[in-house]
Specification:
Order of helices and strands: HHEEEEHHEEHHEEEEEE
Oligomer: single chain
Shape: globular
Structural class: alpha+beta
Mean pLDDT: 88
Strand content: 25-35%
Distance between the termini: 51 Å
Low-confidence stretches: 101-119
Number of helices: 6
Helix content: 10-25%
Largest sheet: 10 strands, antiparallel
């Protein structure tokens, strides 16, 4: 609808964006990195309309891409973010972000038997396959797996498995890292659990902690404790590097592609944010 298009044009081009808004954080992060956003493209997909007390509420996905430039170096960042609003006297009102999974339905799962586990001490990690999977499914949901309300770790786990990471521990949800039938380990789907699994695993899938994010390679994993309280909230997978050698990551919840690793443009980020960087494979 034209009124929504105009709303976002005003947001993107305003010189007085709201302090602390996603858009203001994006601009500040680009300035800090020395990048310029030279083109923005977006489209909206309404997925739900609700009437509450004679008021229509519209829920939609904003798919936006940013063409980033520094000197002669370019790359495109993409995000798909869900929002809701209603109209008041012909104007957009109550515009708020939503959880992405409000538009999703349960999907069938592929039968992955516990026999798929491999207890190898070592495995050859196919980084290219992991990244290809991350690129294919960054804004979609593989019907071979369940989609979760908070899907970031489930998505990263799928990428790791696509890269050849061996599963082990089924059917005990407290042990190992695995997905089998319509069941899974906590480490497969919970951000905090995967962070500690990567630190503590001594066989099969394990992570080597890295101090400098510039030393990460495509296929590696970043874990985020946004508030710095010791509880990790989010995971991403590295898919590329920028001109300075810093990671660009893909993620679910909210769906993002080639996003700058630090996540300082996220409303969840705080100055107390702590990170863990994991090298996957040998």
């Amino acid at each position: 609808m034209n009124i929504l298009k105009q709303y976002w044009l005003d947001q993107f081009h305003s010189e007085q964006t709201e302090e602390g808004s996603i858009w203001e954080r994006k601009k500040q992060l680009c300035k800090k990195r020395g990048y310029e956003i030279i083109r923005i493209r977006g489209s909206g997909e309404v997925f739900q309309t609700l009437r509450v007390d004679n008021q229509l509420y519209y829920s939609y996905i904003l798919h936006v891409s940013f063409l980033m430039k520094r000197d002669q170096h370019f790359y495109i960042e993409e995000q798909a973010v869900p929002y809701q609003f209603h109209l008041a006297e012909g104007m957009i009102a109550g515009h708020t972000a939503l959880s992405l999974l409000t538009r999703q339905k349960a999907v069938p799962t592929l039968s992955l038997q516990a026999g798929d586990e491999r207890g190898n001490d070592r495995f050859i990690y196919d980084r290219r396959a992991a990244v290809q999977y991350a690129e294919r499914w960054w804004n979609d949901y593989n019907p071979d797996y369940r989609a979760f309300p908070v899907d970031c770790t489930n998505y990263v786990s799928q990428c790791l498995k696509a890269g050849g990471a061996p599963m082990r521990g089924a059917p005990d949800r407290d042990k190992g890292w695995w997905y089998s039938n319509d069941n899974w380990s906590y480490s497969w789907s919970v951000a905090h659990s995967l962070r500690w699994y990567l630190s503590g695993s001594t066989t099969g899938l394990k992570g080597k902690e890295i101090e400098d994010p510039q030393d990460l390679e495509p296929g590696d994993v970043i874990c985020y404790d946004f508030s710095g309280d010791g509880r990790f909230d989010h995971n991403t997978i590295v898919v590329a590097k920028d001109v300075d050698g810093y990671p660009l990551v893909n993620a679910h919840t909210d769906n993002s592609r080639h996003r700058y690793w630090s996540y300082e443009d996220s409303l969840a980020w705080t100055p107390n944010c702590k990170y863990k960087f994991f090298r996957i494979g040998e």
